[in-house]
Write a structure and sequence with these properties.
This protein is an all-alpha fold and 191 residues long. It is 67% helix and 0% strand. The chain has a single domain, classed as Hypothetical protein af1432, CATH 1.10.3210. The structure holds fe (ii) ion (FE2) (2 copies).
Length: 191
Amino acid sequence: MKKIKKYLKKNLTKERYQHTLGVAYTATAMAMKYNPDTTNSDFIKKAELAGLLHDCAKNMDNGKKIRICDKNNISYTSIEAENTFLLHGKVGAHIAKSKFGIEDDDILNAIIWHTTGRPEMSTLEKIIFIADYIEPSRKPIPDLDYIRKLAFEDLDMAMRAILVNTINYLQKSNKPFDPMTQKTYDSYNNV
Ligand SMILES: [Fe+2]
Ligand SMILES: [Fe+2]
């Protein structure tokens, strides 16, 4: 944990580091609530690790992200190549594995999918996706405090509320978005 924090402090902006600590803290609290096995705290530790590492490649130079993908056979879409910020999940998971020896697929997937989500997410994946949105230092966004409350009541309802907000925001601001965000949205809203 110390080694990871040292790396993050060095490689992230001050604001991103603060956000990262907020996500780790929030994910830890959520994992306490949703721990599937209350005879041990493995799940809680996993949530803390995934929270700490989810944005570890966020401030990386765009060219470097592409180079890491190419070198390690990490595939990416043309949309990701044009909007390399979309790659920070995949590259982040690679760093988690290669630099910090994280082998747990659930942690790695939570890092990979934290930006777009995906249909049929695991509990840990949902926790990181939601914690990323609601952590304490987040700038105020519509319904934020309602979603914060939902996050500790019903994960799927919180997912739905975040996805509705995200799609609305992306459409309004004409920002390019990954088709996976739409897929995730559809999977949570066509039920
Ligand atoms: Fe991120
Ligand atoms: Fe984040």
